[in-house]
Amino acid sequence: MKISYGQLWAVLFLSNAFTVICSAVSYSVAQMTGTLISVLVQFVLAVPVICFLKKKKYKANFRLPASMLFSVYFIFAGMISFSRMFSILRYENSGLTSFGNTMIVILLAVSVLYCCRLGIHSAGRSAVIVAGLFIFFVAVLFATSYSQAEFSNITSKYDENSVWYYVINDISNSVELPALLILPCFAEKNQYKSIMLYFLTKLILVEMISFLGVIVLGRASLISDSPFFEICSFSQPLSVQRSDALFIGINTLICIVNITVDAVAVSVFAGKYIKYSEFSGVVLMLSGGIWFHMHEIYSAGYLSVIVMLILVYISVFYRYMRKSERGVSA
Amino acid sequence: MEMYITLDYQDEKLDFSLKDKIKRFKEITSGSSDLMINEVEICGVKTALLSCEGMMSTQVVTRLVLVPLTELNLNTEQKIDATGLFDHIDNHMLLSVDRPKADNYGDAMRLINSGFAVLIADGNTQALGFGVQGYGIRGISEPTSEQNIMGSHDAFTETIRINMSLIRRRLKTPFLKQELMVMGSKSHTDICLVYMTDRVSKNLINRIKKSLGKAELETVLSSGYIRPFLESRKKGIFTSVGVTERPDVLCAKLLEGRVGIIVDGTPFVTVIPKLFVENFQTMDDYNCKPYYATFIRWIKYLAFFVSLLLPGVYVAIAIHHPEFFNRSLLLMLIEAEQEAPLSLITESVIVLLMYEIIREAGIRLPQAVGGAVSIVSGLIIGDSAVKSGLISTPMLTVIAISVVSGFVIPSLDHTITVFRFLFLISGGLFGLYGISILGAVMIFNICSTESYGVPVTGPVSPFRMSAMRDVMTRVSFRKMQKGNFTIEKIK
After folding, report:
1. B324 and A114: CB-CB below 8 Å?
2. Which of B241, B274, B307 delimits the end of a domain?
3. Residue B440 is part of which domain span?
4. Same domain? B117 vs B84
5. A330 pLDDT band (50/70/90 cuts)?
6. Which residue from A minimizes the CA distance to B317?
7. How many beta-carbon pairs under 8 angstroms link A with B?
8. Which of A151, A220, A231, B276 is deepest in the core (most CB within 10 A)?
9. Which numeric CATH code is attached to A5-329?
10. Same domain? B78 vs B216
11. What value, to the nearest 5°, has the Cα angle with vertex A136 and ends B292 and A74?
């Protein structure tokens, strides 16, 4: 069963939203410019993919090396999602011990196992609902943080990092980029539209959150471990003290959707060759996530993503070129 | 244990002689007292009129069947036989509107037990049925579970024919098809498939018939017996089969390409397929201004979340995320909870359990005693529990708000009741993380549920803009009449 292009967009959008929520990058004008350039660079890189998808339908029948490579990527992406969840659990302390936090992550893994058994169409439909909820919550965040805004932060130069630092940072943080090349095979038609829509909404979301971060947090974002939740703690909707607790909920939902999509992808690609691929995939993701979190090596993880991105990019286009050559010789 | 012999008579042809036929009918019914056999000679032919006591109207059968038949005088020179008599009655006499024939014991017994008077004669293998039903029925009354203010005030009853007429009265189009069938090897319950031939897809009808065919039931005493066979997903949290007791609601659904299944003996009609958003739509929404209907609809959405999540979220925030509350609210809650001897989660589970017990008692008891239950539970238990400090006032308030919100969406009552407990426990143990994880499982479950290929989460996901006019808002009928929305567009 396939998903619609709107559902594919929701899956990609949520993947980016999770990155934005969990990011430790501070908000500044330089960061906003860097992110803008980064998104444009990513879009330019994706143009061949968009052209390819516009011309041809992309199906999920890959050979063993490609299937294994893609599975490894999705397991890797799942590991990063789990480790990010751990970092949020540490930041947004719910009064539980580290054992309690581990229990939450294990519970999350169990729920992912259940959700991925329901298939990609269920994940796609759920992604649309969760994306709608996320957009609603961001709108609430905007409306309620406005009273805390300090517009002089835009002109004050409190960040010493260069624009290029943020360009590299954003690209390395975008774990979902290789998925742009792989996930379209799950969509029925108009696959290119979801990628175009993804870049547009990513730009809007990232720039909007960054802008809010600059005017609300300003210099404070430099010392925060989780600037997004810092903004949330400043907003006070409906006479509540701070609304970051609300975003815990939506963040966990997004995390489950992301890891479920990763697990479903693993079962599709590796399922043909490995038994219990869903289960093994989720177990690997969870253990990898715990290991990443224990050693606090997130940056190395992100660097590996860039390597993976290049590898996947090459593999897909190698396949495409080979097919084109076959077409010419025929 | 000694049992009566079960006779396989369903396809057995009727005997030639009247004596044998009567003997066989008596054997089949084991001499049941309600089988009435009136032997009478008509134009020299020995006949018998068989009927079931209490199932037919004595007045009607006397006036319309017995009197004309006994007064029948055929001025023919030749002696008439049973076949000739039956031909004459069939072709020249209009004794009743509904006149089915039977040539085997199974069909004849079904007619007798359905309130027909069945005429058999000596010298042929046929039986003539006359529709003279006159059993005691409940009249059309107001709906009990789907009340409204400005819509019609009649509801379906237990009698299938009356229910069929209630639909026909509203949809006088020839495209409305009502297809009768029989289910249940023992009960022989009449089932009626209702649909609009110009709106419904043939594939949907065939699939529904196939599902019903798979239901090998002995009895069908209510629509609940066949509903599990119509559910596409067995492990779904939310049902994909709708139920209504309002003929106007059913007609609106039929016009959207849905199929209704009326079961004789049940005042609730099953509707397939059902979308989740339909739980929030009522007939009154279409009788008031669109802006008010939209407002009420959003109130219902809010009530759903409040009834499902409020106790869980309250406990989760109070235990795990107290920073969410503002200072004065937090101090108020601390003060209230300090008095309570039980932990917050235990206290909330006990209050919810007590409510469920009281509610069940209120439903099962006679109405007169039901009032007493409300007094005892509300005034005595509730008041004394708070005064003694066993239960804190904020907790009781939270549970009360949650329960009252649940009354806004009665069709989701079962799901809300169970999941309110689950959310409460997961929120108490793991805070908002626990609630989100359970919420995600719920979202994924409902998103995977389909009813004959129609996703129940439609038109929200998969998103269909054309159908959203009756989900987020309720547009005016000027806009509503354009486009001829059918359920197939959700796929």
Report:
1. no
2. B274
3. 287-451
4. yes
5. very low
6. A245
7. 122
8. A231
9. 1.20.1740.10
10. no
11. 140
Residue B196, domain member (yes or no) = yes
B241 plus B114 within the same structural domain:
no
DSSP E strands, B15-126: 35-42, 45-52, 101-102, 116-121
Question: What gap in Å lies between CA A31 and CA A170, rounded to an integer?
Answer: 9
Of B325, B432, B460, the CB nearest to A249: B432
Q: Indicate if B259 and B303 belong to the same structural domain.
A: no
Alpha carbons A4 and B462: distance in angstroms, whole number: 8
Same domain, B307 and B408: yes
By three-state DSSP, how is residue A111 classified? helix
- Total domain count, chain B: 3
Q: How far apart are CA A14 and CA A9, in angstroms?
A: 8
**B64: pLDDT strictly greater than 60:** yes
Domain match, B118 and B178 both: no
Cβ–Cβ of A248/B445 closer than 8 Å?
no
A260–B433 C-beta distance less than 8 A:
no
How far A301 CA lies from chain B's nearest CA (Å)?
Answer: 25
B484 belongs to a structural domain: no
CB B301 within 8 A of CB B489: no
Q: Do A126 and B460 touch (CB under 8 A)?
A: no
Q: Are the C-beta atoms of residues B21 and B109 closer than 8 Å to each other?
A: no
* B302-349 residue pLDDT tens: 999 999 999 999 999 888 888 778 778 788 888 877 777 888 899 899
Q: Are B428 and B344 in contact (CB under 8 A)?
A: yes
pLDDT digits (tens, 9 = 90+) for B119-147: 999 989 999 999 888 888 888 888 888 88
Residue B425 lies in a domain: yes
Q: Residue A329: which pLDDT band, with cuts at 50, 70 and 90?
A: very low
Same domain? For B291 and B416 the reply is yes
Specify the pLDDT at position A300: 46
- Whether B136 is in a domain gets the answer no
C-beta separation of B313 from B344 below 8 A: no
Q: Provide the pLDDT for residue B304.
A: 96
Among A1, A117, A122, the strongest candidate for a mutation testing the B interface, having the largest count of B CBs within 10 A, is: A122
Q: Show which of B77, B111, B131 is a domain's final residue.
A: B131
